Amino acid sequence: MVDFVDDVLQPAGEGFIETFVSRYLQMSEVFMRTTAEDPVQVWARRQFSQFVASNLRLAGRPFRWLPKGNARWQTGNTLWDCDLIEAFAWETGDSPRVLAYNLFVPLIKTEEESQDDDQTGEPRKGGKNVDICLLHSTPEQYRSKSRRPKIVRDAETYIALGELKGGIDPAGADEHWKTANAHLGRIRRSFDALQSLPQLFFIGNAIEASMAGEIWNQLESGGLANAANLTDDRQTVSLVSWLCRL
């Protein structure tokens, strides 16, 4: 970082801001080409992971984490880069918990898929990715290639499901919320049909007044169990504390 400042930003003089932004955009483009992920969303997930790790450490609760592309769970005291995390694992009382990112949940179906089930009597293959999933699962079950498919098809496995929107542009905040709200609606309908409903929550980096009213109404009605603005530490700490206690 010191070399970057000395070799790139200082020589740019008064144009250092433009240079910094330009380099950031270049790095973002490379990142998106190599990972196919939105760097803003990755950054939001990193922030959320830091809150989770801090909560568990401050509470003195042992935890493990699973690096992306790695077959072995690591202990909490080895955690140094939150960008690498695929999942966390800990215990709430005597119950094992796994918090997983971008998990494919085969139980979630669109309205059209659900209608086809009703008409044919045969379940249609569905499934959607969910940003954050809290599961009743041991770390070994989650990582096992033979046991994990059974776990994710059991509605009772899911303790909480949440949408995380990392966009920081206020102009696009409503659109991010509409997308997240539609997805939460699909989750709600799918699990209602299975007579099992996990706790649902929403986390956003940009929450405008219009969407705040909708979120509050859902919190009051029970449609959402929790919500937080990721830019407000108190809200995020409260939501993460709640999630880690479930």
Question: Briefly, what is this?
Answer:
With 246 residues, this protein is of the alpha+beta class. Helix content is 47%, strand content 21%.
Task: Give me the secondary-structure topology.
Elements: H1 2-9, H2 16-35, H3 39-58, E1 64-67, E2 74-75, E3 85-92, E4 95-105, H4 111-120, E5 128-135, H5 139-143, H6 148-152, E6 158-165, H7 173-193, E7 199-204, H8 209-221, E8 226-229, H9 233-245
Parallel strand pairs: 6-7, 7-8
Antiparallel strand pairs: 1-2, 1-3, 3-4, 4-5, 5-6
Helix pairs in contact: 3-9
Question: If you had to describe this structure to a student in words, what would you say it looks like?
Answer:
The chain is an alpha+beta fold. It folds into two domains: 1-36; 37-245, Restriction Endonuclease (3-Layer(aba) Sandwich). 47% of the residues lie in helices and 21% in strands. It has nine helices and eight strands. Strands 2-1-3-4-5-6-7-8 form an eight-stranded mixed β-sheet, with helices on both faces.
What characteristics describe this protein?
about 45% helix, alpha+beta, 8 strands, 9 helices, eight-stranded mixed sheet, Restriction Endonuclease, about 250 residues
Give the DSSP E fraction (strand runs of 2 or more residues).
15-25%
Q: Give the number of DSSP strands.
A: 8
How do the strands of the widest beta sheet line up side by side?
Answer: 2-1-3-4-5-6-7-8
Low-confidence stretches: 25-34, 118-123
The structural domain count equals: 2
Gyration radius from CA atoms, angstroms: 20 Å
Helix-and-strand structural type: alpha+beta
Classified by CATH, the class of the largest domain is: Alpha Beta
Largest beta-sheet characterization:
8 strands, mixed
Specify the CATH architecture of the largest domain: 3-Layer(aba) Sandwich
